[in-house]
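check this one:
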Amino acid sequence: MSSSDSSESRIVITYGTYDLFHPGHVRLLKRAKALGTKLVVGVSTDAFNSRKGKKSIMSFEDRKIVLEACRYVDEVFAEDDWDQKSSDVVEKNASVFVMGDDWKGKFDFLKSHCEVVYLPRTPDVSTTTIKHRSVQLNTPQD
């Protein structure tokens, strides 16, 4: 476990794209923050999303601004690649690594550095769902 496991400071780290910020994001961040005293969030850059085959509607800069305005988030930084998580956990002195349970088991390798927690996703709420609804609403009806 990390040396930050004291009652004074318990840093929680999480990652995501956070495109079209929605209630599911807020609930995840609120629950993540409740696990510690400080929440740091890695936001996927546009270049990283492109390498993952994802296309965001909002730019990295805009997604970062929105996250910085969220009361549960204490710090936002760029996520540039998959491999930076181990070094981020160490550099940020994180006690807890949090992801949605759709990633369950994928980041267990971080358990040598910190506690790993997979939180349940908010049912029926996702950026993908919002994008699909938007397309449906903007498709002309015959």
Summary: The first helix runs from residue 23 to 33. The radius of gyration is 16 Å. The beta strands are 11-16, 38-44, 75-79, 96-100, 115-119. The chain is about 30% helix and 20% strand.
